[in-house]
Amino acid sequence: MQIRFTKMQGAGNDFVVLDETQGQRGLSPAQYRFLADRHFGVGADQILSVRPAPAEGIDFEYAIHNADGGEVEQCGNGARCFARYVHDRGLTTKKVIRVKTLSGVIAPEIVGEGQVRVDMGRPELRPEQVPFDAAGLQSRAVGRAQTWQLPLSDGAAQWIMPVSMGNPHAVLLVDEADTAPVAAVGPQIERHARFPQRVNVGFLQRVSRSEVRLRVYERGTGETLACGTGACAAVVAGIHQGLLDTQVRVHTRGGLLQIAWAGGEGDSVFMTGPATFVFDGQIELPEAP
Ligand SMILES: N[C@@H](CCC[C@H](N)C(=O)O)C(=O)O
């Protein structure tokens, strides 16, 4: 089967976008893996499938699949690319677009010059809601936050703060993002038994109260050039620990994201950043599965 797609990227986090507004809904996990494959397929960190509105008051639905084929709840950089896709391709004339994801409805807004601002909803800090099994682990309070010491399989231990942005994150503070042990520690925490749905792992370097550097080892994908929900989770963790102000510039390997959070547990996190078209294409899909 031939399939049309659009390649997009947001701060270097890259996507294959599929328009499923006219029919054809869903591929097999193997077909998503094929599209994400950088040697045999198109190449992407995630696949975004744009679908018609499922209910009154919502404009679209979109599904997110990681490079490993698994479906996930939320994607910050993907939300910005989704918004530019439906707006610039004439699927809507709205600038604020209400879209349903697996974890709820979010509202990206086209703000011009290739930038999109997204109300990412409120963070969830209760460990069991991330989900994170904190039972019996050593814990300490830092500012308003609770952090936990996670034992790793190599015998070391790491202080982490779990945060959900609709999808699960563990945030670690590091001295230098550039030299952080992302490849060694990231996979150990991603599949740690204490995170029953696995987890995205953020390595956060505080530069000042309004500036951080961040690298993220993403669940189901590995390290990406940027992770939008990871940036939101890291800033929430930093603000909650008393380390950051309410507006923070997040430098990732792929570009700049601006995150704002007023700091109350009921407050939404806002993310602003780029969303860029790369190319359109067509590819022969392998038979499912
Ligand atoms: N790149 C994304 C996050 C994609 C999903 C994530 N890997 C997960 O499994 O939760 C972003 O920009 O937020």
Describe the structure.
Helices cover 15% and strands 42% of the residues. It has 289 residues and is mainly beta. It has two domains: 2-115 and 275-284, Diaminopimelate Epimerase, Chain A, domain 1 (Roll); 127-267, Diaminopimelate Epimerase, Chain A, domain 1 (Roll). It has a 19-stranded mixed beta sheet that branches. The structure holds the ligand N[C@@H](CCC[C@H](N)C(=O)O)C(=O)O. Ligand LBFN2T5F is lined by residues 13, 45-46, 66, 72, 75-78, 167, 200, 218-221, 224, 227-230. The active site is at 75, 75 (proton donor), 227 (proton acceptor). This is Diaminopimelate epimerase.
Number of domains: 2
Question: How is the biggest beta sheet arranged?
Answer: 19 strands, mixed
Supply the CATH superfamily name of the largest domain: Diaminopimelate Epimerase, Chain A, domain 1
Terminus-to-terminus distance: 13 Å
Q: Tally of extended strands?
A: 19
- CATH fold descriptor of the largest domain: Diaminopimelate Epimerase, Chain A, domain 1
CATH architecture of the largest domain: Roll
> What is the arithmetic mean of pLDDT?
97
What gross morphology would you assign? globular
Rg result:
18 Å
The helix-and-strand class reads: mainly beta
Please give the count of helices. Answer: 4
State the order of secondary-structure elements, H for helix, E for strand: EEHEEEHEEEEEEEHEEEHEEEE
Instruction: Report the uncertain regions.
Output: none
Bound molecules: ligand LBFN2T5F
- Percent of residues in beta strands? 35-45%
Residue share in helix? 10-25%
What is the CATH first-level class name of the largest domain?
Answer: Alpha Beta
